[in-house]
Design brief:
The chain has 549 residues and is α/β, with parallel strands linked by helices. It is 50% helix and 13% strand. It has helices spanning 3-20, 46-54, 58-72, 93-97, 99-106, 136-154, 170-185, 201-214, 224-249, 260-265, 268-278, 314-326, 344-353, 390-397, 399-407, 419-423, 430-447, 463-473, 475-485, 489-508, 517-540; strands spanning 31-32, 42-44, 76-82, 86-91, 120-124, 158-165, 256-259, 282-285, 288-291, 302-305, 331-337, 361-366, 369-373, 376-377, 415-418. It holds the Pfam family tRNA-synt_1d. Its EC number is 6.1.1.19.
Length: 549
Amino acid sequence: MNMIENNLKVSIKAALKEAYGLEVEDNFIVIEIPKDQALGDYSTNVAMRLAKQLHNNPQVIAQEIITKLMESDNDLDGAEVAGHGFINFRIKKSKIASVINDVLKAGDEYGHNDSGKKLPILVEYVSANPTGDLHLGHARGAAWGDAITRLLNASGYNCLREFYVNDAGVQITKLGESLLARYLQLFGIEAKLPEDGYHGQDVADIAQIVKAEQGDKWVKVDDEDARLQWFRKEGIRLELEKMKKDLDYFRVHFDSWISEQGLYDSGEVEKAIQKVIDMNLTYEEDGALWFKTTEFGDDKDRVLRKNDGNYTYLTPDIANHIDKIKRGYTKLVNLWGADHHGYIARMKAALTALGYPKDTLEVDIIQMVRLVEDGKEVKMSKRTGNAITIRELCDDIGVDAARYFFVARAVDTHLDFDLGLAKKKSNDNPVYYAQYAHARMCSIIRQAPELKHLDVYDMLTHEKEVALLKQINEFPDMVADAALTRMPNKVCNYVQKLAQQFHSFYNACKVLDPQQPELSNQRLALLEATKITLKNALDLVGISAPEKM
């Protein structure tokens, strides 16, 4: 809620208390922005909501509220009863323009708010297996997860960004075997790749690194098991190193990297199993250990330990989530691929069974991405013939365009990523449109005389100026809402609206007019506030704000 709306609520509460001796909660009073701005700047239906309680006509109640408000609220320019009891408010233009000083004072932190009240929240995203390059699905999850964490941090949450490394299990053994085979092949040895191993170029590339660093050290050995274990670990290390470089290039950074193997080595997996057993939540059948998850909302019970003694994927995942909670995070958010949709119920059931609140874990599913160019799907890289990686995409269209297009649409919908549009240097391309608006503002400011800061901006009364000011006013509310709902696409929507409002203002109002220096100064201040707001909005989704284009 912006300052104007908050003050309006306070004034309405005071008016109700004075007129009727009635005290209401803040959330009882709903302030909205009329679709038709000619009706006013804000409106409320509070009189209609109180009609039954006060045994009075809502129009009479509305008029009484207006009378009290006009006596006490200096920000109001006027108010009228509309329809069956709506109240439409007109705010003084100078009050709307006061947001300029708020923005100039806050600078890079304009839009930041404390709505999160330092709630500890851990967001896990990407978490790709360290067995190959990051591809488009990972890219969408990376951009979305990073934008969520930026929003949460800007809204006063205590947010940790975490990557869970799946470095245990059969797939890692296959990686080690594949890397070893590729390494031996470099020495002319006919080593066969595992049939279900990793046959791609990325493993061949890291085999070259191993050869360069190790020479022929691992060609002839006495202990082949020890050699395979070394190649497992080295494969993980090199794949993670490459992954971190690609994520860094994509402007995605993590505070914490948690190893699945580390959970085994530290005994956390065994502790989790024992906890479930001690709580009488398991039973044995056909030699396997089963978790009674159906008692907690799952569609069937789940195996924790198979009859061969090995654990299922669920077991270390339970240990991982217990570990997150033990570290003090009361809200857990996971971003999972569409193929994990069926996994949500069992994970939530497991945590509920262990006594944690039902809303402890929330999962956002990242739907599929389809690259499209000239109306046709692009499935493979023209350069390598393999699936397109994050780095290849960014090299082709740029990091800004890639991130923006991934975040602009909600992740619960399939995304057709238009490569042709992303490459366009025109207003048809939404990220170009927004960045061009910022560059144009910077250009105007560079040509302008030094800005004189004022206490009151009372000359900004043109409808395009007022519309732009209102858009700036909405920014902190939008940030808080996008953080709460974990919907960074709302930021992209806001960016487009703000850029559009700027262009409308720029086309209608001459910013630098030597004949009107005072008006020019106020418009220049509005421009500076708009520039700051746009830059801050772009930063929330990891997009740069160039000063020249």
